[in-house]
Design a protein that fits this description.
Layout lengths: L2 E3 L9 E3 L2 H10 L7 E5 L4 E11 L2 E11 L7 E5 L5 H14 L3 E6 L10 H14 L7 E2 L3 E2 H6 L5 E5 L7 E2 H4 L6 E5 L7 H9 L3 E4 L7 H16 L2
Parallel strand pairs: 1-3, 6-7, 6-12, 7-8, 7-9, 10-12, 10-13, 11-13
Antiparallel strand pairs: 2-5, 3-4, 4-5
């Protein structure tokens, strides 16, 4: 099955037109024609069975045959992670996290961050492509990048964790995660969180956790956290 995307679709829509870029891909690349059925998601949980009724390359039009809602899991998983020095490594994390399952991502800039800017539009395209490729119907929320201290000032509910490499009293993440509980976890840059950043997180209720005995790259640590949360909630 191949999945397509149209953010404006909902249960009230009977006919719709794909955006120009998606239309070109459907008609010119995939050579779909009138009568062919396409599976479409709006990124908000709905999966639509549709049929092409007009195959113009710039304005492919379809009608909705069936709509079904795939419900979210009971927990909400939010990861605040420092962008890596190279873009491709951070994009790799976003792709894999979407495939595994994550609800919300906030890029954070820390004291030791080597990257202080991100191109949100490009990252959103990575998330969208990964959602379609993995046949998921929920598009993860990508928040604007924010400083670490400003992120801590926000209200956060559920289980709060910070993964860092300093010698500290830490429990393995897999022993802290509980099924069906909202989770927010902080993942630092290549140079790790500073001592003051760790202290500030603790003061805001974030519990220190370990992701294993090895020292992991930022994107690897983030992916290990994603996998751990996913396994606990699918066990």
């Amino acid at each position: 099955m191949q999945l397509f995307y149209h953010p404006q679709l909902d249960q009230s829509v009977s006919q719709f037109t794909f955006p120009e870029e998606e239309s070109k891909h459907i008609v010119r690349v995939l050579r779909k024609k009138v009568g062919d059925q396409l599976m479409v998601t709006n990124g908000k949980g709905f999966l639509f069975t549709t049929e092409i009724i007009s195959s113009e390359p710039k304005r492919c039009k379809a009608q909705v045959l069936k709509a079904q809602k795939k419900h979210q899991k009971m927990h909400w998983f939010h990861m605040a992670v420092a962008p890596t020095k190279t873009n491709d490594r951070f994009e790799w994390f976003l792709e894999k996290a979407t495939e595994i399952g994550i609800n919300e991502i906030t890029p954070i800039f820390c004291e030791h961050s080597e990257r202080k800017t991100v191109k949100k539009e490009r990252l959103e395209k990575v998330l969208l492509s990964a959602m379609k490729q993995s046949l998921r119907t929920y598009l993860p929320i990508l928040n604007d990048a924010i400083s670490y201290n400003d992120f801590l000032k926000k209200e956060h509910s559920g289980l709060l964790f910070i993964a860092h490499c300093e010698e500290d009293e830490k429990v393995e993440l897999k022993r802290r995660v509980a099924p069906d509980k909202d989770i927010t976890i902080l993942i630092g840059p290549e140079g790790d969180f500073s001592t003051q950043e760790i202290k500030s997180a603790k003061e805001r209720g974030f519990l220190p956790v370990s992701l294993g005995d090895s020292r992991l790259r930022t994107e690897t640590a983030a992916l290990v956290a994603c996998t751990t949360v996913n396994l606990i909630n699918n066990g």
